[in-house]
Specification:
Helices cover 43% and strands 9% of the residues. The chain is mainly alpha-helical and 138 residues long. The protein has 2 domains: 35 residues; 89 residues, Penicillin-binding protein 2a (Domain 2) (Alpha-Beta Complex). A 3-stranded antiparallel sheet has the order 1-2-3, with no helix packed on it. The longest helix has 34 residues. The termini are far apart.
Length: 138
């Protein structure tokens, strides 16, 4: 009887140790993601909150030398949480120079901001990260 008990306990111990090791690996990975990798994840191109926060700032118009407005920001009154939407009155006529700004992230659209739109990104501060649901209720 004692031999039978030992024979049954050995596989249970092995499985328990394997589960414990896997659990410890998961614990280490979660701590690594939160402590070491968090800044790169927060600022990465796959993070949709970055683009959401960029839409909370009103970008100035892009005006040609003869006074024609070729890009503008308009206030949105919808439930998406985006405060401003970039509009281009002449569509793609000036696109090679101005580029474009979109609600997609760099991971979703590799050429998401080009031309003057990308060049001016460094000129304005990005607001603190907040969730769309928190800002749309105000």
């Amino acid at each position: 009887m004692n031999q039978l008990k030992r024979d049954l306990n050995r596989p249970i111990k092995r499985v328990s140790i394997a589960v414990l090791v896997l659990f410890l690996i998961l614990l280490v990975n979660v701590n690594y993601l939160q402590a070491v990798d968090a800044p790169s994840l927060a600022n990465g191109p796959e993070n949709a909150r970055t683009e959401f926060n960029n839409s909370q700032i009103q970008r100035g118009p892009i005006v040609t030398a003869d006074g024609v407005t070729i890009a503008n920001s308009k206030v949105t009154n919808d439930s998406t949480g985006f405060k401003y939407l970039r509009t281009y009155p002449d569509g793609s006529v000036y696109a090679p120079v101005t580029g474009y700004d979109t609600i997609f992230t760099a991971a979703q659209a590799p050429n998401y901001a080009t031309g003057v739109e990308r060049a001016e990104d460094s000129c304005w501060p990005v607001p603190a990260i907040s969730s769309p649901s928190a800002t749309s209720s105000t």
